[in-house]
Design goal:
Layout (H helix, E strand, L loop, with lengths): L1 H20 L1 H5 L3 H22 L2 H24 L8 H32 L10
Helix pairs in contact: 1-3, 3-4, 3-5, 4-5
């Protein structure tokens, strides 16, 4: 159990450091993109916890991550740039949106590989 707590602390520290590094990127985002960034960072933390976990706990955390990804992806697909943006603002918005989508896809691929390693990949268990 001690090792699990240490792994959890390490994962938390890693996410915190990533959040400090991404402050400059967040400055160019609109409010909705900032919210999505926070949700994506929470999901990334959940995935790190799942990586460190074993057995039923790992499965539970991966299911929670999958739900978080599904919710976030649905919101991301509905996002649209606000009207009245300049061409530069619109390009900046698109670039930020693409970064968020890339992060989501990276997490989904990592989760997919974890599921394959666990041998639990079937048509019913992976619904992204």
């Amino acid at each position: 159990m001690k090792k699990h707590n240490i792994n959890k602390m390490i994962a938390t520290l890693a996410v915190c450091s990533l959040s400090f590094l991404s402050v400059s990127a967040i400055a160019a985002q609109d409010e909705f993109q900032r919210q999505m960034t926070q949700q994506i960072m929470k999901a990334k933390q959940k995935l790190k916890e799942a990586e460190a976990a074993k057995g039923a706990e790992k499965v539970k955390l991966m299911e929670e991550h999958m739900k978080m990804m599904d919710d976030t992806m649905g919101k991301m697909q509905k996002m649209k740039p606000k009207s009245g943006m300049t061409m530069q603002e619109h390009e900046d918005w698109i670039n930020e949106h693409q970064k968020l989508m890339d992060d989501l896809m990276g997490q989904m691929m990592k989760e997919h590989h974890m599921q394959k390693e666990m041998g639990c990949m079937s048509a019913d268990t992976h619904k992204h």
